[in-house]
């Protein structure tokens, strides 16, 4: 019965009329009545969820009180790795801590497990440097739930003790929802990192242009009003745009990051600095070009500011999806991102062609060729950033450390 995936219970009845219960059940004489086999059906989404875990570098371990035969059958149905190798609670109780640490590293199924053995398994995994997330619902699960890095109680049927001992309460009692939660966590983490990268990068040219112009006696390009305009673009871009981004298609095909990996590592700072420096060099080159062409100061300011705004939009798309190129980011962008870009373009056009706003921003009316210079400059700047990203990805195929930023 167990080999066909059934959970098996023995049924017996006491043969004596007892007025007061003894201290232990062993003192009662039982008459065996029979066996009950019942099915605890596997949800149809579990197999695909476990397969996705393996692709994401997440090890899945079954810890159950059922017979080894039942555990093997269920493991085979859900696609658990190494399902033929089963370690029982009796074997664990006879192991030393060192031996147990070796066993948990290679075993995916533990059967006939008692609560104290479940706790030892969790502690052994943690001792091996693993980040352990454990699900449970009973009172006996509480010690292991508390010890795990992330204790997860099954919301609908969990005891209050299990909920109190857990870090999370899973409202949907489905393993696939847990995997979706991991995916969501990865997306939030990546989007937050990319938003910070974008903020660091875009402030390099803003600060650079504002400082270099007076230091080297170049036309003063950015006044407080221009910086306020740029910040009105940066704030919604870094919060709303990156928040609504769905994330990379291969989000669950990458291994977990290391537990001690800092959020802002040298790669993040380096990439941000390179991106910002490319935009800064492009803007300075444009300022020098307009001065070489003897263009008026207002004209130079207008051309440079347009380039800076368009480069800002391009930089946002570059960082929205780190493992894809900018053009894929544009096609996959959400409606919110498109609205931010549309609003930015409308505001920019308004400052150029509404006389009162144009004079407020100290802009001048541009000819077609001057607008073309601005757009071409922005295109070349973003193309240089994309070329740099492409080179890094090519090198990353040989040395994964360079792509650790993503």
Write the layout of secondary structure elements.
Blueprint: E1 7-14, E2 30-38, H1 46-55, E3 62-63, H2 68-78, E4 86-88, H3 89-93, H4 97-106, E5 109-111, H5 115-127, E6 133-136, H6 142-147, E7 150-154, H7 160-165, E8 168-170, H8 175-215, H9 224-244, H10 266-292, H11 297-320, H12 326-331, H13 335-353, H14 355-360, H15 368-396
Parallel strand pairs: 3-5, 4-5, 6-7, 7-8
Antiparallel strand pairs: 1-2
Helix pairs in contact: 4-5, 8-9, 8-10, 8-11, 9-11, 9-13, 10-11, 10-15, 11-13, 11-15
Can you describe what's shown?
With 406 residues, this protein is mainly alpha-helical. The chain has two domains: 2-178, 3-Layer(aba) Sandwich (Rossmann fold), CATH 3.40.50; 185-405, Calcium-transporting ATPase, transmembrane domain, CATH 1.20.1110. 58% of the residues lie in helices and 9% in strands. The chain has 15 helices and eight strands. The protein has helices at residues 46-55, 68-78, 89-93, 97-106, 115-127, 142-147, 160-165, 175-215, 224-244, 266-292, 297-320, 326-331, 335-353, 355-360, 368-396, and strands at residues 7-14, 30-38, 62-63, 86-88, 109-111, 133-136, 150-154, 168-170. The strands form three sheets. The chain has a three-stranded parallel beta sheet. A three-stranded parallel beta sheet has the order 6-7-8. It starts with 6 loop residues before the first strand and ends in a 10-residue tail after the last helix. Mean pLDDT is 86; it is low at 398-406.
């Amino acid at each position: 019965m167990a080999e066909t995936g059934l959970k098996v219970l023995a049924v017996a009845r006491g043969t004596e009329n007892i007025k007061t219960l003894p201290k232990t059940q062993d003192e009662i004489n039982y008459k065996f009545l029979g066996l009950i086999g019942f099915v605890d059906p596997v949800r149809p989404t579990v197999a695909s969820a476990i397969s996705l875990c393996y692709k994401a570098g997440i090890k899945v371990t079954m810890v159950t009180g059922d017979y080894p035969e039942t555990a093997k059958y269920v493991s085979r149905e859900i696609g658990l790795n190494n399902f033929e190798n089963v370690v029982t609670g009796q074997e664990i109780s006879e192991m030393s801590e060192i031996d147990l640490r070796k066993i948990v590293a290679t075993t995916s199924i533990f059967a006939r497990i008692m609560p104290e053995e479940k706790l030892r398994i969790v502690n052994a995994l943690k001792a091996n440097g693993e980040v352990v997330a454990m699900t449970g619902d009973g009172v006996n699960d509480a010690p292991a739930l508390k010890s795990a890095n992330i204790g997860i109680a099954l919301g609908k049927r969990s005891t209050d003790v299990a909920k109190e001992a857990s870090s999370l309460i899973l409202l949907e009692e489905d393993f696939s929802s847990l995997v979706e939660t991991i995916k969501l966590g990865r997306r939030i983490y990546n989007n937050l990192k990319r938003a910070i990268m974008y903020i660091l990068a875009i402030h390099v040219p803003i600060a650079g242009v504002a400082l270099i112009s007076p230091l080297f006696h170049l036309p003063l390009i950015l006044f407080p009003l221009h910086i306020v305009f740029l910040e009105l673009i940066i704030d919604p871009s870094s919060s709303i745009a990156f928040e609504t981004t769905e994330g990379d298609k291969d989000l669950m095909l990458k291994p977990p990051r290391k537990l001690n990996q800092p959020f802002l590592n040298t790669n993040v700072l380096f990439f941000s600095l390179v991106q910002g420096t490319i935009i800064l060099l492009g803007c300075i080159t444009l300022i020098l070009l307009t001065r070489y062409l003897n263009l008026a100061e207002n004209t130079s300011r207008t051309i440079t500011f347009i380039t800076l705004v368009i480069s800002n939009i391009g930089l946002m798309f570059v960082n929205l999806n780190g493992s894809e190129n900018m053009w894929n980011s544009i096609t996959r962008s959400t409606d919110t991102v498109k609205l931010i870009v549309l609003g930015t373009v409308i505001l920019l056009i308004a400052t150029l062609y509404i006389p009162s706003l144009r004079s407020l921003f100290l802009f001048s009316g541009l000819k077609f060729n001057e607008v073309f210079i601005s757009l071409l400059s922005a295109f070349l700047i973003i193309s240089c950033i994309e070329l740099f990203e492409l080179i890094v990805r090519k090198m990353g195929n040989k040395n994964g450390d360079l792509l650790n930023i993503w």
